[in-house]
Amino acid sequence: MADLSVTLAGVTLKNPIIPASGTFGYGREFADAYDLDLLGSFSWKGTTAAPRDGNPQPRIAETAGGMLNAVGLQNPGIDAVIREEVPRIAKIFRGPVIANVGGFTLDEYTENCRKLDGVEQAAIKAVEAVDACVGRAVEAVKEADGVMFICADHGNAEQLVDYETGAPFTAHTTNPVPFILVNADPAYKLREGGCLADIVPTLIELMGMEQPAEMTGKSLLVK
Description:
Layout: E1 6-8, E2 11-13, E3 42-43, E4 60-63, E5 66-69, H1 78-92, E6 97-98, H2 106-143, E7 148-151, E8 179-182, E9 189-190, H3 199-206, E10 221-222
């Protein structure tokens, strides 16, 4: 199969097909017509800070060459979109979505973007806080000429939304778990394909102890 992937503003899309903003609503209007995951992305309709009813009817007129419209940015407002539409989108589309925001002042544009960015930024700050604390622990171990293992599950930082329900994703994922050896003998390497049961056997080998027969895990150390 041909590779149709493209890069748009640093984001990789599996193909360049992006329905026109506005006419595609918030995606759910077309979810029963075909599988939205066939798309590279889609841009939801223009969304403002406050709800807008749009222009009064009539606001669509047929012409000899097509049609004219002046809908007037009808939309439920950014808070309702985040609360209601974003979880719905997560149920029907698994690719990147282009958020289309509108405003009448620079401050309104900024506030809309801030609200949309809020959940991801909170996750980023949490990861940065953990990294900073681990970094201080690493430096302390090195100063004491000790050895440190760093092992952590991924939590849910790489998946913020449950794709099936649209609700916040709070369970642990099944992605690979990193395992890092700090300040050990450079002759040691770590093998691939370990599991959580291998952590304690690794510690035991490094301390020069004998592994109990009851332990089914295997050391990750390779010389």
